[in-house]
Amino acid sequence: MLQKRSFAFRSFRTQRVAFFLFSILIGFQIYLEFFYLQNEPRDIMDFDFVLQEQIDSLKQRERKDQIYPFNPNYISLSKGYQLDLSLEEIERLHRFRNSGKFANSVAEFKAVTQVSSDWIIKYSPYFKFPEWVTSKKLKVKDLNVSVIKDINTATAEELIEIRGIGAVLSKRIIKYRLSIKGFDLMEQLNQVYGLDSLVISKIKSQYQILTPAKRTKIVLAEATMEDLLRIPFLTKKEAKKIIGLRTKNKKITLKSLRNEPEFDSLKLERLALYLQ
Question: Is 231 in a helix, a strand, or coil?
Answer without folding.
Answer: coil
